[in-house]
Design brief:
Layout lengths: L12 H5 L2 H4 L8 H5 L1 H21 L4 H18 L6 H15 L5 H34 L5 E6 L9 H7 L6 E2 L2 H13 L13 E6 L25 H19 L2 H15 L6 H13 L5
Helix pairs in contact: 4-5, 4-7, 5-7, 11-12
């Protein structure tokens, strides 16, 4: 029997985010769950989003997206692990009450336990979801952390750290292995030396280029406060916006008499159009304020 393929964040990001392995196992989810646990889902999503926002923001997730994902987790829990549908969970709570209180739990106590278990489950899943977002963001950059240590040789030529890391051998530098570097560092500590040198006495340089992934700043174009930016609009809306800006600029360069002519023409064309009621009133106010030189 072929083993089941493990999902990875690089190619199965969305399936991992909604925990597809849970959803696919839930049989006949009850639509009432959404309403029943709405307050728990929304509150938990909001708290965890505020706590882990940098990671969610890296892949463009806002609070509404996190709420939708949290609803998926809730359905997975209620369908697979709830006290009502999972015999093992129910038996566990029954045994706990009999042991501690020598009685079975009431319906209210079971509901309260269900609520506590659900919140715990959602928090764990959202915590893990934020890590997946962080990994995906690093993957988007198509880069990874790069570290290496090189020793100078008699043939070394001056070069930048980037060039040494890329073409160290060609530039006359000898790459140091991890084991060798470990031994050299130990020797330097014993000798109380700040410099690292190989067995031949050549200086060693350590190169480190970290890939920090994508920052929230890189996604500044997806946030709500940028929605007036033309890049968020359709091509038609962007064109209209650009034309509008150009027309306003031209209008402001005109003298009073030409401005008055344009405004009067606008009023005449749109005075009976309800959609332009506010604009017509504004145009009349502008005419009153114009100083026309005769």
């Amino acid at each position: 029997m072929a083993s089941k393929k493990k999902l990875g964040y690089e190619n199965n990001f969305e399936m991992l985010m909604i925990r597809h392995e849970y959803i696919s196992k839930v049989k006949n989810p009850d639509p009432k769950w959404i309403k029943q646990w709405e307050s728990i889902v929304n509150t938990t999503a909001m708290l965890m989003y505020n706590k882990l926002r940098p990671n969610f923001s890296k892949v463009g997730y806002e609070l509404d997206d996190v709420k939708a994902i949290t609803n998926c987790y809730m359905i997975g829990y209620m369908g697979l692990y709830s006290i009502e549908r999972n015999k093992k969970s129910r038996d566990k709570i029954l045994q706990s009450f009999k042991k501690r209180l020598n009685r079975e739990p009431t319906d209210q106590e079971i509901t309260r336990k269900e609520r506590t278990n659900l919140i715990s489950f959602l928090r764990q899943r959202l915590q893990h979801a934020s890590l997946i977002c962080s990994r995906k963001a690093r993957n988007i950059t198509v880069g990874r952390d790069r570290r290496a240590a090189y020793a100078f040789t008699k043939d070394s030529v001056p070069a930048s750290d980037e060039m040494i890391l890329e073409k160290g051998a060609k530039l006359g530098y000898r790459k140091i292995t991890k084991k060798e570097l470990k031994d050299i560092k130990l020797k330097a500590r014993v000798e109380n030396s700040k410099e690292l040198r190989d067995v031949d006495g050549f200086l060693i340089i350590q190169l480190e280029f970290l890939n920090d992934g994508i920052s929230e700043y890189d996604y500044r174009g997806i946030f709500i406060n940028d929605l007036d930016n033309p890049y968020h609009k359709s091509p038609e809306e962007s064109l209209i916006l650009a034309e509008k800006d150009r027309n306003i600029e031209k209008f402001h360069k005109l003298d009073g008499k030409n401005k008055q002519t344009i405004l009067k023409t606008f009023i005449k064309e749109h005075k009976d159009d309800k959609d332009y009621k506010d604009e017509v009133l504004e145009a009349k106010k502008m005419i009153k304020k114009l100083v026309v030189v005769v």
